[in-house]
């Protein structure tokens, strides 16, 4: 029997799509203890780049923009949006069922080739679904797979544990077979006796973090093989985990005390530990930048760290300018000279796509740099950009969230009474100012 319950299939009209991670939208407080209300003011979500191909921008349909989006996650060319009404809206590339639709439904009339993007025109197909009898508490999107974290709606004695469910490409999902699945399938973590607090996905890898700070991963291993059973990535000593960010063959973890740990391949300097370190298959503390970290972001082969002095550091591959520095690659973190382009404003939030990067500063402006193929930076043209440059298309608009997919950048625009609230330097939720 299927857990999946579809709500509807729709099309977006003319203009744009969306992305972002670690965000929560809450309406203006009325002084009560209520935390969720229907958001009446529409939110506009822009996407620049390959989603779908050939379009510079798309705008989400008004009906969806009023649902109250609590989180947005993006893969290489698909988007998941979690609503306050416990539905997930999925759109974009569904080649492997990562949008929770049967890919065979996209076959053209002569049954020759599937429509990889599910669109032959400017309309982008969207599907809303939920998991029967479960509350969806988190979502994540990898290259060609997706994760939802669910918990039983009826929880006797508070004993039910949250569990991840995956769908899409068999590598990213860690399926034992080579067959993709479009219906959410539970991931069993042997011996787990505590709640999972968050799930993450990137490239062909999946991760889950428990309330005590344990990290489990499955899907593609750091050597390129398939890890079917979730495996723990032990830290040197127990500590809380604020965020995980997943690159192509490496990953990053940010602790509650601002320490950064990296693991995986260091061919391009992705670990930020220096040229002498080749590879590491255990988490190693990255103590090669000053201060402590407030935020992290991992691209395919590069990473960013924002420290407590609002200084931004990059390391890894810079072949497309994604590090915003002078050299072709950096084995140790190098500071990005953002003062040259932002005056007195300071970076507050950072993001990475496969080969591009983005930040939002204290003035609410969006800057992007790196690979600009198909206009994924939101900057006209297709030439790579080697230092942060302001995105003029969203200047003067109230940015409440940003996300980088593998091949695109997305921006969530909202009412002026919504603002980004940070907890220990990372976005926890979006609430209006008092």
TrEMBL record:
Keyword Repeat among UniProt keywords: yes
**Which PROSITE patterns does its entry note?**
RCC1_2 (PS00626), RCC1_3 (PS50012)
In residue terms, where are the RCC repeats? Answer: 213-257, 258-309, 310-363, 364-415
SUPFAM superfamilies annotated for this entry? RCC1/BLIP-II (SSF50985)
Q: What is this protein called?
A: RCC1-like domain-containing protein
* Entry keyword set: Guanine-nucleotide releasing factor, Repeat
Answer whether the UniProt record assigns the keyword Repeat to this protein: yes
Classify the source by domain of life: Eukaryota
Q: Which Pfam families match?
A: WD40_RLD
Q: Where is the RCC1-like domain?
A: 65-409
